[in-house]
Amino acid sequence: MNVKAKTAYKEIAGRKHLFLLLISVAIVLTFIIDIMTGPASLSASEVISTIFFPAYSKLSVQTIVWTFRLPGAIMAIVIGIALGLAGANMQTILDNPLASPYTLGISAAAGFGAALALVLGVGVLPFADTLFVPVNAFVFSLISCMAIYSVAKFKRATSETIVLTGIAVLFLFDSLLALLEYTANSEQVQAIVFWLFGSLTKTTWTTLGITVGIVLIVIPLLAIDVWKLTALRLGDDKAKSLGVNVERMRLKGLILVSVLTSTAVAFVGTIGFIGLVAPHIARMLVGEDHRYFLPFSALSGAFILSTASVLSKVVVPGIIFPIGILTSLIGIPFFVWLLLYKKRGYW
After folding, report:
1. Ramachandran category for residue 96: left, alpha or beta (phi over 0 → left; psi -120 to 50 → alpha)
2. CA angle (68, 304, 294) in 5-degree steps
3. For residues 259 and 210, what is the distance between their CA atoms, to the nearest angstrom?
4. What is the signed CA dihedral for 38, 40, 46, 47, rounded to 10 degrees?
5. Phi/psi class of residue 338: alpha, beta or left (left: φ > 0; alpha: ψ in -120 to 50)?
6. Which pLDDT tens digit goes with each residue over 97-115?
7. How far is 177 from 112, CA to CA, in rounded Å?
């Protein structure tokens, strides 16, 4: 590599590192704003003193900050990371710019599995109460992933075919969920509907700890394959010539997507479009090199969901608006833009 090429490479890498730094700072800012805002009117000094010196704060303020605001604000970042990674991984392994856990019905499948556990107490595997909902959501999301993967393996399966399969999966599990709502009583229906809206308000330190643990396990499993995932973007034949076991990579990727998606759905409900939007923001700013693409997708997801968490508290004064509705409202115009302009060169 000559001096000119090295200089150009360093400039590009420096720009990517700058983008990563800027979005990290933005996440810190939205996190601070998130814990400062809420239906209860607390001053910045009250919140800060309660975080660092809880023993000197009022019990009511301690409860608001430590039981509701802090877990919810951290969960927004962690779930955003999970959905950003899930979307990025899915778009890579399926070679499809429209792939995401939401648009391909994986969230709907996980939602149906979680609803069975939440409302009817029906589980596919015997697990303790804490893991009952997540495991159920994981199994059903894995079923939907395998259905999509089977279609993707067909020799002539195009991107459009995969998307149509995902839409079919989405409608199937939405219909099953509607059937579940129809047969449930009013209290159960209310629980399903509230949960489907997507909310961070029921986050506890226990559910946050489980979520963080799962995400921390998945991240290294993705990180060790960044070069293989980058090679996969060159096409199956080139990836195979570079020593990548394409089938194994796709299978592993779909399992990890199922884990991340089911975790998000089980603990905060259905959060739409982050898995679609975050990877495209990353791709436009840092390109296809997965050393940068995966971290930026994760951070983009964290920033979007953290921002949505703030907006959910201020859009209607005095109440917390369902966060899943806000993410869909943000994602829909981007989705339309993607459909209209996806052939302009960055995919």
Report:
1. beta
2. 115
3. 12
4. -30
5. alpha
6. 878 888 788 889 988 988 8
7. 6
Q: Which of 23-31's residues contact partners 24+ apart within 8 Å by CB, and which partners? A: 23/296, 23/299, 23/300, 23/303, 24/299, 26/303, 27/77, 27/299, 27/302, 27/303, 27/306, 30/303, 30/306, 30/307, 30/309, 30/310, 31/73, 31/74, 31/77, 31/306
When pLDDT is averaged across residues 198-207 and rounded to a whole number, the result is 90
Residue 92 has pLDDT above 90, yes or no: yes
Q: Is the pLDDT of residue 231 over 90?
A: yes
- Rg of the chain on CA atoms, in Å: 21
d(CA 145, CA 131): 21
Distance CA 133, CA 128 (A): 9
Q: What's the pLDDT score for residue 157?
A: 65
Question: Looking up tokens 């601070």, which residue turns up?
Answer: 32
User: Which whole number is the average pLDDT over 297-313?
Assistant: 95
Rounded to whole angstroms, the Cα distance separating 268 from 225 reads 28
- Per-residue model confidence as pLDDT tens digits over 55-87: 888 888 899 999 999 999 999 999 999 999 999
Average pLDDT of the chain to the nearest whole number? 86
**Domains in the chain and their CATH numbers?**
76-341 (1.10.3470.10)
Residue 125 — very low, low, confident or very high, per pLDDT cuts 50/70/90? Answer: low
- Token pair, residue 108, equals 């709907």
Tokens 């919140």: give the residue.
47
Rounded Cα distance between 346 and 142, Å, is: 30
Local confidence band at 219 (pLDDT 50, 70, 90 cut-offs) = very high
Distance set, CA 332 to CA 92, 134, 144, 269, 272 (Å): 21, 27, 23, 18, 9
Considering only CA atoms, which of 257, 342, 271 is closest in space to residue 302?
A: 271
